[in-house]
Amino acid sequence: MGAPHDVVIIGAGFGGVGMAITLKRAGVDDVVVLERAETLGGTWRDNTYPGAACDVPSHLYSFSFAPKTDWSRRFPPQREILGYLEDCAREHGVLPHIRFGADVRGARFDEHAAVWRVDTSVGEIAARVLVSACGQLNRPVVPEIEGSAQFRGATFHSARWDHDVDLRGKRVAVIGTGASAVQIVPSLAGRVAHLDLYQRTPPYVIGKPDRAYRLWERTVLGAFPGVHTLSRAKTYAQYESRAVGFVVNPKLMGFMRRRFLRRLAEQVPDVELRRRLVPDYPMGCKRVLISDDYYPALTRPDVDLVTDPIARVTEHGVVTADGTERPADVIVHATGFAATDFLAPMRIEGRDGRELGAEWRNGAQAHLGITVAGFPNLFLLYGPYTNLGHNSIIYMLESQFRYVSACVRAMRRHGLASIEVRPRVQERFVRAMRRRLSGSVWEAGCASWYQSADGTVVSNWPGFTFAYRRATRRPDPRHFRVRRAA
Length: 486
What we know:
This protein is α/β, with parallel strands linked by helices. The chain has 14 helices and 20 strands. InterPro entries: FAD-bind_Monooxygenase_sf, FAD/NAD-bd_sf.
């Protein structure tokens, strides 16, 4: 197994690559990144469905320490984002630190040695510090539908798109109306023979101010770094202001809803179709989506919106509760992810034999979404209470990078074998999150992927991102139990 590494990171997406870069810049060179796939990229490697793109502007959906001035569009497509992350890993020397094809099955904290024993598909690896950068959107959910095994056509999840299936001339059933479906449907409409979109709950879809950057704009951005910094700051301020409606005064979302209804009426003239597209829950309770071509696609004669519940799947199609069978050659599940399971299905054992899944059976908990009582030297990126509904997750990740890096450097500087957040500190933080979330739009009476099985919101940060940056500016030594190295 060899000597323990200073830091082992699980996952080579934005979180893992950014964490490795930050540690290297801080002088921590003994870093290993474990990636189960054969390439890096995380969600931007996995989601290659037609129309896949970001819903955060490019100047904000990128690392502050690695600005890119030649994005092709304001909202970049999947391939360009993946290329950016690959460039970051290569230019900052992270690629040699990544072990591809290393699937992490679990990890156990060895209290005597104060190291994590990480069980992987390529053998056991020891780490003084373990960082999970698995993200929240990495485990696709495919609903159990009666008869699915009988279906003779192709079927796959949007995050596992089968590009070998030729969709031309096919009848396609898309199940789900989340962020992926809003991009998939317009991309397939007009290319396939017919498309049936199965909707359980209509989303709020607002306009997408997207456009290609002109050559002169890219030239100016590249020549004058201050212009890029100003563009990033302006975009950040615009998106940050939306937190007022999400967590400060949800009643303000009523204004946004009225704008949504006016735009929907403009794009969908048919009264009956429009009625089925109006959500019956407060705006913002579920993820608000952006698209300029989703609603126009639904008005096409070769696209049908199906709102009757799915009863079963047959050999040749989908049957709804009213008994209607609609033929299908391909079924696409745009049905989201197991977002609140966090580190599952890995088995993580901490101090005194504690198992993280059991500790979190009533909902995930972590101080600042990063550290967990009972699990020394374990840090989470994009953990509970760190997701956003209004701004760029990259900003939150960078806050976490700094916090984790400071903890690692403090351990080295003071000769600490382990640090562990105090239970009381974690409990106080979780109580504060629950109190603040109770007044947010996310707890306004709808079911969403932000919630755990019992309906508790455990994913989202109930405040401004700059407040999170301030809270994670530096680790407070009083928050931790420490054990010095022998």
